Structures are given as C-alpha cells and as structure tokens.
Amino acid sequence: MLPTARVPDLPPLREVIAAHGLSASKALGQNFLFDEQLLTRIAAIPGDLQDRAVLEIGPGPGGLTRALLRAGARVTAIEMDRRCLPALAELGEAFPDQLRVIEGDALSIDHGELMGEPFAVVANLPYNVGTALFTRWLGGEKWPPQWTSLTLMFQLEVAQRIVSQPGSSAYGRLAVLGQWRSTAKLAMKVHRSAFTPPPKVMSAIVHVTPGKAPEGVRAKLLERLTEAAFGQRRKMLRQSLKSLPGAVEMLEQVGIDATRRAETLSVDEFVQLARALEQRS
Ligand code: SAM
User: pTM here?
Assistant: First the structure.
C-alpha cells in the first residue's frame, strides 16, 4: 500500500514549462492544461485511485500526471516527446515509486504487457492518436479487457459521437463501438480556453467502463457490419449492406426492415444482426 497523505509541494506548471523550455509543439498535438483544480477534477473521474495502476498516455509536462499521483495512483506514463522527460523525472522524484515514464509512441506499445495487471487509462491526447487508441482498446476480441476504465479527452464533437444515440446525426460506428459491451458517458466538457495554446474547438472527457459482452458476436464482424452500414449512411440498409455477404437476407430474419437506414438501428439491433451473421457463417 502506498501512503495516503503525503502530497509534496510542486512548482506551478507554468514554471516547469519555462524551466524546461517546453514550447508546445503543434506537430505533436500539444495543448497543455495548467489549471490544477481542473486537473484534480479530471483525475477524480475514474474514482478512487489510491494504489491503483494507471496508464497515462501523453503526460507532456506532467499536469494531469501530478493530479493522478496526488490521488495516490501508481502511474505508468508513455510520452513521445523526449523534451518532456526531465520535467517528468523531477515529478518522479517528488513521488518516489509512484511514477514510471516510458519514452515512445503509445500506438506501437502493447499496453497490457507493459502494465502486467489491470489498469485504468487516463489520457489527454491529440485527436488522431486518441481515436486510434480508442478503436484499439474497444475493438479487441478479448473481453473483459485488461483496462478497467478509460478516461479520455476528445474534441467535443468526437466525444458526442461516442455517447450518441440512434437517430442523431452524431450516431455511427464510434457509438456502436463504445456502447455494445461498454458504458460510455460524457463526464465533463472542457472549454478551449483551459488549454495552452487554446485549440480551435471545445473538448470533452469521455469515461468508458467495460460491461458484459453479448454472446456469440465477434468484435471484428460487428465492425465490418457498422463499416458497411454507416459507410453509406444515407442509403437504405438493403443497399448499404450489399457489400457484406448474407447481411441483407439476415435483416428479415432478425425483423429489421431493409428500408431503414443505419442511423435508426439501436446498438442492440446491430448486435442481433451480427449474431445472426455469425451463426450463418
Ligand atoms: N497531458 C498533458 C496535459 O494535459 O497538459 C499534455 C497533453 S497534450 C494534448 C498531448 C501529449 O501527448 C503531448 O505531450 C504529446 O507529446 C503526447 N503525444 C502525442 N502523440 C503521442 C503518442 N503517439 N504517444 C505518446 N504520447 C504522445
């Protein structure tokens, strides 16, 4: 067990940035958070972190990292920008045995192997990396996954797509992926002015917890189904599903009208259709 009450004094984040010359790099999608109250609220989203293993992707100068460490987490942080490593090393010294920093690209690291135990994920990432990792974390066949929750900052528009419901224009592949065997909630909106430099758009944090996987459905097949259905979202299913052998015939079998469009189908209906296709093959 880690001690609970020891919270070292740390210099303000702006001083850390200045001391280490960490100007934000656009190429690395760097928009830093400095408001420690906000960072504390974000670190509270996954619940009690005392002595829990947390994987943080993209710690940058360590704003969110320090909030996680103060909450008592054992943090493994993957950062691609080596300029940030000295600042993170100082943070590690302030919280002995609580922080491990890995220099590298989070997209090319096996997170399960790295962590070796169940872990919560917390990340404030550039848009493209966040979506790629989200798809990977939610898309595997192994379920329940090794991660116990995902707390991820996205552009507001992407966050809304993940939590959206049928019938809305935001509803699509990300919603089905995020909801068919998980619960996805929009935990907090974050104003663009909270970041340095401020991005063009608003952001939001999505919190995902794994649930029970419906039986008899592979993630891969469901993904192919939603890819076909939403690939031509304005078309009726009898047209958009033509590219997936057997899918149009299966619609009738599971009681889905072939003249409906993808965005009207509930997550459950996608699951039923995928299950029927699995049974057929
Ligand atoms: N967590 C810090 C904060 O909230 O202030 C920094 C957030 S900044 C939006 C994103 C961070 O992710 C940057 O430090 C960037 O260098 C890092 N990053 C970008 N792509 C990455 C990748 N593929 N793997 C690991 N880190 C990455």
Answer: 0.95
